[in-house]
Amino acid sequence: MALFKISVAGLVLSLLLVLTVPAVSANMAELKDHELVSPYQGSVLRERADEAFNEYRRIVGAGAEGTKTETVEGKVSRLRYDNPKGRSTLEIERNYRQALEAKGLVVDFQCAGRQACGHQREPSWNSLNGLNLGVGGDVRYFTGRLPAGAGHVWVSVAVNPQRTFLHIAEPAGMQTGLVQVDANALASALDAQGKVDLPGIFFDSGTATLRSESNPALDVAASLMRERAALALDVVGHTDNQGNDAFNLDLSRQRAAAVVAALSARGVPAGRLGSRGMGASQPVADNATEEGRARNRRVELVRR
């Protein structure tokens, strides 16, 4: 009788294992390696996030003056692998590099060790682009460019003893026409709150050059001001907190001035428009995430 009880208990345990394992396997099966780079043999893909179009701050230098970044745009993929046991960071990093260089990768920056890489200095690499290498000293990193038609694919690989991060930014156009600016909604917000974000305004990365995709939003704002002849507005630029404070302040001022110039070119009298920049001093979201930083990079219309 006791033997029978043990057998039943074992059967129940076996059934539980059968029921739970497929669910875990199904979740893992949803993750796929990037088409461009095969992982180090024995690695386990734990996380992959893809964005059809976004900015990516590529780490291209580190020193006493701080982390140097280069902002690129396109389709961004972030993958995180668990490393196989018993393999050094040097072996893993070198295998990735040799495989990529065989495909034509040109390395722009590399480092080894906490001091040389400076990944924990503020702003940390994790806050810049999601490379969370932890607090240990055994870290390795390289970033480079692969030829892709008339442009490049940017690849960054970061390794600590437990994990490997693979970030890839590929050339891709941004899908446009997804934001519709409504003149009535702008007017209602200005009447109720005295200010409103102007959606649909796009600049070349790190510059005050307005993109052509901004024209529909600018046309609506200009139309609103023509309909309301007494309306006077300040255009106020805002940035996220990445980079130098002085640079961000100057950039926000230049972007606000660019919007004013665009509205003036559409027939809005210059005397009804002003511009100012606030840099990163008035965030509306958490700068620790890319989503929050995107919300903080904005242009406001403020009623005088």
Care to describe what's here?
With 304 residues, this protein is an alpha+beta fold. It folds into 2 domains: 34-170, no CATH class; 183-303, 2-Layer Sandwich (60s Ribosomal Protein L30, Chain: A), CATH 3.30.1330.60. The protein has 8 helices and 10 strands. It has helices at residues 2-29, 89-102, 114-117, 125-129, 183-193, 215-227, 245-265, 290-296, and strands at 44-63, 66-82, 106-112, 140-148, 151-159, 163-170, 195-197, 233-238, 273-277, 298-303. A hairpin with a 3-residue loop joins strand 5 and strand 6.
Structure at a glance:
With 304 residues, the protein is of the alpha+beta class. It contains 8 helices and 10 strands.
What keywords describe this structure?
304 residues; alpha+beta; 60s Ribosomal Protein L30, Chain: A; 6-stranded antiparallel sheet; 4-stranded mixed sheet; 8 helices; 10 strands; disordered N terminus
Would you list the SSEs in sequence order as H and E? HEEHEHHEEEHEHEHEHE
Radius of gyration equals: 25 Å
Which strand order does the major sheet show? 1-2-6-5-4-3
- Helical amount among residues, as a percent range? 25-40%
Give the rounded overall mean pLDDT.
87
Work out the strand percent: 25-35%
Give the overall silhouette. elongated
Question: Structural class from helices and strands?
Answer: alpha+beta
Give the count of structural domains: 2
- Give the total of beta strands: 10
Termini distance? Answer: 89 Å
Sheet having the most strands: 6 strands, antiparallel
Low-confidence stretches: 1-26
Figure out the total of helices: 8
